[in-house]
Input
Amino acid sequence: CALLLWHREMADGAPLPPGLKKKVVVEELEVGMVIRATVKPDDFVCEGVVYTVDPVTRTLVLYNRVSAESDECSIRLVPKHSITNLQVIGEATEERAKFGEPTPVDDKELEKRERTAMEAMEKAMAALNPRAPKPGQAVFDALAKTMDCAWLDNSVVVLDQVKIDPPYEPDNCLSLDGDQNALDRIRRILANLRKKWHKQRTADGVGGGGEKNPRRHTKAGGDDAAGASAAAA
Output
């Protein structure tokens, strides 16, 4: 590798090529230069090719190829304030300057990712109801794992067919479209969830009307909803 050979020559005291400065400052560096930096507090010496210099923090970013046959490289960040000596040991070349250039970015793909992330965030925010009591949020979280749910004030609307009012018991389920089968199915699922949660509270030592923090059961609630749905089918 020409870069490694050049490093060995410089270590042996070979002269710098014409036009290269022995000592420079960070502001004089060019992308693609090969440099040797001594940094404090232990006078550690590092070498590498200049990838960029951060214009805000004045941090020097260096890269070195892992091997001559590989395009993989290691990256080192060197803050300007830690540099006690800086030398150029290899001039900038077009090949070095272009090596490791960022891959062109597809603006449409970025916009698509942004929309997807925003939709996911909006969906997550819509699932939270700070005004609803904890049992209501627990019911919503569990049912939403397997069915489309939405909040209507403090009531949970499932599949636009059934509305579950506080205190979120099977008897609080109301049909929105007259589909009795859908109403009965949601009631059975909710009853199975309630039974499962009651067993969990009993096993954890929460008796009587004690209500556990529903957020602790988010994952379990999803599994329960799936199991309860299968049992109710």
User: Anything to note?
Assistant: The longest strand covers residues 44-53. The helical segments are 2-11, 94-98, 107-126, 134-144, 180-203, 218-232.
